[in-house]
Amino acid sequence: MPKTYNETERPMELTRIGFVGLGMMGLPMLENLAGRGTTLDLVAFDTADAPFEKLAQHPAWQKSLRRARRLADLEGCHAVITMLPDSAVTNAVVAGAGEARGLVDVLAGGAIVVDMGSSNPADTMALARRLGEAGIALVDAPVSGAVARARAGTLTIMTGGPEAARERVLPILRHMGGTIIATGDVGSAHAMKALNNYVYAAGLLATSEALLIAERMQLDLTKFAEVLNASSGRNVATETKLNQFIIPRTFAGGFALRLQAKDVTTASHLQALAGVRAPQLQLCKALWDEALVALEPGADNTEIYRFLERANAPDDEAHGDAGSTGTPLPS
Q1: CA-CA distance, 171 to 189, in Å (whole number)?
Q2: Three-state SS for 188?
Q3: Cα(250)–Cα(236) distance, integer angstroms
Q4: Would you state the CATH architecture of domain 16-184?
């Protein structure tokens, strides 16, 4: 008979922690987890070498923090955090792919997998059932906040899953987040994260459209950003993207446009599941999907502004980075 995770059992103290996925967000999260006087024994896995070249300078390196060369090296971990780009990658790491073993084959009963990426809630619930058969709990714990907040350890973290499992991982999550919100059953955190990211994507899109109009009217863009941030149009995009990345045209906010589009697609699936008519969500999805095709691979989500510029450029400029001829206000 297969084992099932029993949330009343606490077979082990969570002291040996695995971390899988050292991208732009995962690496600073791990650095915070390894700092602040932590007594955790940390084992990190990523297929790239670059993150470990940086980690070699960390005070915890080779003391309480070391590299796993393969997923099997995470055997014996009491909990494993995954910070991966999407459900497809997360599913392969957790459940295995083909003949490759996953965490479900590596971890012992009583362990906890903490999925901190932005996964599809339906996949999250399926993984929870698969892990539960092996006596392993799944907590979905997606984060909100850009790279700067990951570095500062002040992310907002949503947590879904068995209450006992959520409580057990809470001290670990506090190394990485300033606000931790319990959302309910497994999958609920990923669902709320997707809906949150849709609202953010809509705000960034509206901000970019308004900025392009202001630019074409030859308005002072810095003053326009000041007006937005002091008025009812204020949102995360106006506060953290306009002056920082869009107006100076650095477009380096730290969140990939493809991931933004993926999150809006997930929100669209939830809309269909709920049977709610949401025309604005569908329009938002269509525009982000168009931008994904039109812009270069690896584009930052702030480059939605460049997409709008190109879409509004004269025909002879449509294939380049459009410059604004501008339309001043009438005198």
Answers
A1: 18
A2: helix
A3: 18
A4: 3-Layer(aba) Sandwich (3.40)
CA distances from 294 to 219, 285, 291, 312, 320 (A): 27, 14, 5, 13, 11
Percent over 70 (pLDDT), the chain: 91
Nearest to 203 by CA among 231, 246, 234, 225: 234
- The residue count of the chain comes to 331
Among 165, 196, 158, residue whose Cα is nearest residue 179: 158
Structural contact between residues 55 and 61, judged by C-beta atoms closer than 8 angstroms: yes
In the chain, the amino acid numbered 79 is: A
The structure tokens listed for 268 are 């669209």
Domain limits, the chain: 16-184, 192-317
Q: Residue 19: which of 58, 56, 59, 52 has the closest Cα?
A: 52
Active site residue 193: yes
Distance CA(70)–CA(62), nearest Å, equals 17
Tokens of 138: 């799944």
Q: Rounded to an integer, what distance in angstroms lies between the CA atom of residue 106 and that of residue 118?
A: 23
Domain range 192-317, CATH architecture:
Orthogonal Bundle (1.10)
Q: Which residues contact 25 (CB under 8 A, 6 or more apart)?
A: 83, 143, 147, 150
d(CA 48, CA 322): 36
Confirm whether pTM is higher than 0.85: yes
- Contact status, residue 137 vs residue 131, Cβ threshold 8 Å: yes
Q: Taking a C-beta distance cutoff of 8 angstroms, is the pair 204, 304 a contact?
A: yes
Pairing of strands 16-20, 79-82: parallel
Residue the block writes with tokens 């670990």: 172
pLDDT for the residue 326: 52
Per residue in 277-293, pLDDT tens? 999 999 999 999 999 99
User: Which residues have CB under 8 Å from 111's CB, separation 6+?
Assistant: 12, 77, 78, 79, 80, 136, 137
Neighbours of 94 (CB within 10 A): 30
Beta bridge partners of 256: 300
Q: State the catalytic residue, choosing from 3, 54, 193, 241.
A: 193
Q: Quick one: pLDDT at residue 72?
A: 95
Distance CA 174, CA 159 (A): 12
